Amino acid sequence: MLMKRVYELANQILIRKSWWSYSPAQLTRFPYCVCRLLQVSGILLILFLCFSHAGQSDTNSGQTRSKGQISILATGDITVGSGLTPVLRRHGLDVLFRQISAEIQNADIAIATLNTSISDQGEPQYTAETQQSFRAIPDLATSMAQAGWDVISLTTPHLLDFGPLAAEDTIRHLNRNGIKTIGAGLSTYSANDPAWVRPRVTADIVNPADDAPSRLVSARQEAQVAFVTYYHAGAFNVDGQIKLARALYSEMTNQTRDLTTKSDLLVVMMHWGKAVQTEAVSNRQQFFAQALIEAGADLVLSQRLHTLQGIQIFKGKPIIYSLADLIYENFDKRHAQIVIPKVTFRNRQLQHIELIPVWVGNPKAKYQPQTLSGEQAKTTLTKYQQLCQSLDTTVSVEIDRGWIRP
Q1: By residue range, what is the domain housing residue 384?
Q2: Continuous H helices in 177-216
Q3: What is the C-alpha separation between 180 and 111, in angstroms, rounded?
């Protein structure tokens, strides 16, 4: 493509009298022909160098990334219902994520949990766990795609608020917009099926079965990241029409062992269902999360309704226990100041976790999360620092960001 552009520009420059337009008699005049050839060659060389430099500038204009480095950004629950339909239609599809889309797109892969259905079908179906029903218009899928989401977990309490047809629509709308979904499907097999994502980075990949240097694969190979998710708070079964991946210990650990040998990076997600009254991480949460790390997960990302919990580093691998609500309709939230972690790996090794402070309690737009700076950022990060400290994790606050380094 580059050479084609060079050729076209050179042709434009020489269009008045191209050397190949001369007759054989003229070409026999050696000095002239050589000069003309040198002229053309010089122009081509200059153009090639210019465009090569421009191409390098474009490549390096974004965030500097080391070879083999992959960043994964994760957020808490996104709960959107009919109450936000007028907002989407009045202010545009980007209104929900407008203030944080730059952060989302700056990561190699962005993931979230969707705690609603996306459909215009179905009737409200209340359960013991869900006292409210949420359903978003199909435009939400477009909004999420434009914001930059790559993978969405559907193992959430409100997915089936409007029945199996609405849940099927949710998968369909997200997939049509280029977003991969995990955790729900028409069969147990499809519900447990992982999502595979190839970020546009280069990576040095070592065969897990052979640590010898000779097994180092070409640095130009793209990394393949696997995502899988489970639901811990009971199974959804609606006449066999829709399934959610269940958090069964043996099945989770077995699948994790299998996927870690097939992927270059493995992210395991889990939703614990209804909220609890404390931010303390339970022994049960730690047992399951640590078992997944021991089985081969590189990152465990769990979630509990309306609950903000800290991050633990276990055997060099991060466990994010809960990230509260990113969007909860237009309601007041239990945690108005939260964090969005961006986890960076290099060749399967944790490099650092960047903590982005976010305000989700703007009284004028409770549906619109926005990044914080200054004293508000420091206050938010200091509070989250305490949650992580209870898990023996050190968070350093530097300007408007928090950092966890192994």
Answers
A1: 69-404
A2: 188-192
A3: 10
Residues in the chain: 406
**Cα–Cα distance between 381 and 376 in angstroms, integer?**
9
> In 3D, which of 366, 367, 371, 395 has the Cα closest to residue 383?
395
Q: How far apart are CA 125 and CA 292, in angstroms?
A: 33
pLDDT at 282: 93
Q: Is 258 inside any structural domain?
A: yes
Long-range contact list for 46-51, CB < 8 A, 24+ apart? 47/6, 47/9, 47/10, 48/2, 48/3, 48/6, 51/2, 51/5, 51/6
Name the strand (E) or helix (H) holding 51: helix 30-60
Return the CATH number at 302: 3.60.21
Residues 324 and 333: beta-carbon distance below 8 Å: yes
Instruction: Give residue 66's pLDDT.
Output: 53
pLDDT digits 0-9 by tens, 325-343? 999 998 888 999 999 999 9
pLDDT of 148: 97
Q: What is the pLDDT of residues 248-269, one digit of tens each?
A: 999 999 999 999 999 999 999 9
Cα separation, 112 vs 74, in Å, equals: 6
Total domains present in the chain: 1
Q: Is 139 exposed, middle or buried (0-12, 13-18, 19+ CB in 10 A)?
A: middle
Place of tokens 């965030």: 63
pLDDT value at residue 54? 39
The residue among 388, 326, 380, 377 whose CA lies nearest residue 353 is: 388
